[in-house]
């Protein structure tokens, strides 16, 4: 499913697509896929088309969160959660850093 979503996002011209394996860190999903969109319109259109293409292959998604503003739209496809960001918002929240952090490191224990 990760490859399917990545291919769809690539076809829709999403940028900086990154997959994070989170199945050992949380029970909410197995993977986060994070991608950057050029504008709020691109974010909204990408979410719509992603949901449509996933539905065509039998994967139902709930209504995406983050509308109507569309700075950050979340598409929940079950075991994969897709985060679509405008560039500035992605940099602000930096989910890659947050979810790649380990809680066993010395720096974390000292914090």
Give a topology summary.
Elements: H1 2-11, E1 15-21, E2 31-37, H2 40-56, E3 72-76, E4 80-86, H3 87-93, H4 95-100, H5 106-110
Parallel strand pairs: 2-4
Antiparallel strand pairs: 1-2, 3-4
Name a few traits of the molecule:
alpha+beta; Beta Polymerase, domain 2; single chain; 111 residues
Overview of the molecule:
With 111 residues, this protein is an alpha+beta fold. The chain has a single domain (2-110), classed as Beta Polymerase, domain 2, CATH 3.30.460. 41% of the residues lie in helices and 23% in strands. The radius of gyration is 14 Å and the shape is globular.
In short:
The protein is α+β, with helices and mostly antiparallel strands and 111 residues long. The chain is built from five helices and four strands; from the N terminus they run αββαββααα.
Shape: globular
Question: How many domain regions?
Answer: 1
Count every beta strand, where a strand is a DSSP E run of 2 or more residues: 4
Strand content: 15-25%
What is the fold-level CATH name, i.e. the topology? Beta Polymerase, domain 2
* Helix content class: 40-55%
Instruction: Write down the CATH class.
Output: Alpha Beta
- Calculate the terminal CA-CA distance, rounded to whole Å: 37 Å
SS field, number of helical segments: 5
- Known CATH architecture: 2-Layer Sandwich
Mean of the pLDDT scores? 90
Task: Give me the side-by-side strand order of the main sheet.
Answer: 1-2-4-3
């Amino acid at each position: 499913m990760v490859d399917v979503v990545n291919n769809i996002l690539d076809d829709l011209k999403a940028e900086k697509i990154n997959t994070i394996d989170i199945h050992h860190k949380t029970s909410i999903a197995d993977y986060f896929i994070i991608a950057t969109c050029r504008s709020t319109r691109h974010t909204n259109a990408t979410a719509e088309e992603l949901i449509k293409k996933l539905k065509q292959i039998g994967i139902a998604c709930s209504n995406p969160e983050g509308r109507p503003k569309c700075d950050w739209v979340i598409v929940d496809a079950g075991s994969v959660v897709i985060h679509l960001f405008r560039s500035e918002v992605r940099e602000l929240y930096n989910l890659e850093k947050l979810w790649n952090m380990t809680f066993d490191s010395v720096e974390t224990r000292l914090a």
